[in-house]
Amino acid sequence: KLAIVIAVDGPAAAGKGTLARRLAAALGLPYLDTGLLYRATGRRVLDRGADPHDAAIAAAEAAALHPDDLARDDLRGPAADMAASTVAAIPAVRAALLDWQRDFGRRHGAVLDGRDIGTVVFPEAPVKLFVTASPEERGRRRWLELLSRGVAADAAQVEAEIRARDAQDAGRAVAPLKPAADALLLDTTRMDAEAAFATALAMVRSRL
Ligand code: C5P
């Protein structure tokens, strides 16, 4: 049985989560959505009525994270998205979450999705995918997803929020969003979920 780490990174709403989950199921590996760690940290800071830019409070909340926090149903939406990205730019928050991610991956191997899995968390991972799509397409997908959940949103605003979050994630000093030098690039702009999965699985197999 495989006990390898597969890193899946990329910008917001590129379809990484769906893809990583399906790869994990196909390969019999555990799956970890690392964005949940930052989302839950941001949520805990907001719950305290604190500012997500407050490094000391955000680091304390990251260190106090409990597994139950990851299953909360209020981790998505414009405020939660931006709070996650803001606490994620704080070095002490990232440091507090690093060992947890490494331990998870090392135990039985894993597919992890995030922004810095291939560059920082598992730079030695044998397989790294960097999944992208155009900002317009990612905005459209997120907007459709909201619609399917009964949330009426403005398409232009959804795209603007995605662009703002990507800019913050790519522009930060520590562990910025970027492909690892040895990552395989997968642009899903013109692919449906099925084609993206088939292409990703072929890419993974080419590296194993
Ligand atoms: O992947 P998701 O959109 O849920 O991530 C939420 C936020 O968490 C991202 O915008 C990013 O700022 C942060 N994040 C990160 N590193 C990761 C995963 C997520 O900085 N590995």
UniProtKB/TrEMBL annotation:
One of its GO terms (molecular function) is kinase activity. Gene3D superfamilies: P-loop containing nucleotide triphosphate hydrolases. It comes from the Bacteria. It catalyses: CMP + ATP = CDP + ADP; dCMP + ATP = dCDP + ADP. Its main location: cytoplasm. ATP binds at G10, P11, A12, A13, A14, G15, K16, G17, T18. It is an enzyme of class 2 (transferase). The keyword Transferase applies. It is found in: Cytoplasm. Keywords: ATP-binding, Cytoplasm, Kinase, Nucleotide-binding, Transferase. Residues 6-204 form the Cytidylate kinase domain. It holds the Pfam family Cytidylate_kin. Its EC number is 2.7.4.25. Belongs to the cytidylate kinase family. Type 1 subfamily. This is Cytidylate kinase. It comes from Belnapia arida. The gene is cmk.
